[in-house]
Specification:
Blueprint (H helix, E strand, L loop, with lengths): L8 E6 L1 H18 L6 E6 L3 H10 L5 E8 L12 E4 L9 E9 L3 H11 L5 E9 L12 E5 L5 E2 L15 E4 L1 H5 L1
Parallel strand pairs: 2-3, 2-5, 5-6, 6-7
Antiparallel strand pairs: 1-9, 3-4, 8-9
The chain binds inosinic acid and magnesium ion.
Length: 183
């Protein structure tokens, strides 16, 4: 059966296979850096869920996982600047090595806020892994410690990333046709 989301995609940026290879390499890299420690991978819902599921299986060290949910977007395609925590941590993180897992680092406003919030809970370290980095749009002073791919200033969907809650289940990452969100 034809994938009915496909006609809304302008161009495929990263295929399923390219993503898988890159995520496996990231998992190996992080496993090397954190060898002998037990970091807490903290996924930022909902966009992280596909990436995190694959990344965790590419990590070969002991680790914990938790999730938070924040919202700053509504149904638009750029940040409103206001960040709200809609699901908080389920446990204390004092003294732990935190690795925040994001789908995309865009303006950086969400992660900058989250990092500030988490640091008040006294973890021993906080690092950031994001599948995609869109540096052209950065408004906050924040950089990923590990990232999968750099993307141009275009709205992308798939592999967990949504537009108005759709396209998260697309197995690759593509640029959404502008007429889909401007109509
Ligand atoms: P930031 O606060 O602007 O860095 O926004 C980060 C969040 O915005 C991400 O976790 C995504 O949910 C969303 N976002 C930013 N750019 C895109 C995009 O191109 N496609 C889909 N979601 C995006
Ligand atoms: Mg989103």
């Amino acid at each position: 059966m034809k994938n009915e989301m496909q006609e809304d995609i302008l161009r495929v940026l990263f295929t399923q296979e390219e993503i898988q290879n890159r995520v496996n390499a990231l998992g190996a890299q992080i496993s090397g850096v954190y060898q002998g420690r037990t970091p807490l991978f903290l996924g930022v819902l909902k966009g992280c869920f596909v990436f995190m599921a694959d990344l965790m299986r590419a990590v070969s060290i002991q680790c914990n996982m938790d999730f938070m949910a924040v919202s700053s977007y509504g149904n638009g395609t750029s940040s409103t600047g206001a960040v709200r925590i809609t699901k908080d941590l389920s446990r204390d993180i004092e003294g732990q090595d935190i690795i925040i897992v994001e789908d995309i680092l865009d303006s950086g406003i969400t992660l900058n806020y989250l990092r500030g919030y988490l640091s008040t809970r006294l973890p021993s370290s906080i690092r950031i892994v994001t599948l995609l980095d869109k540096p052209d749009r950065r408004r906050a002073d924040i950089h990923p410690d590990y990232f999968g791919f750099t993307v141009p200033d275009e709205f992308v969907v798939g592999y967990g990333l949504d537009y108005a809650e759709r396209y998260r289940n697309l197995p690759y990452i593509g640029i959404l046709k502008p007429e889909v969100y401007s109509s």
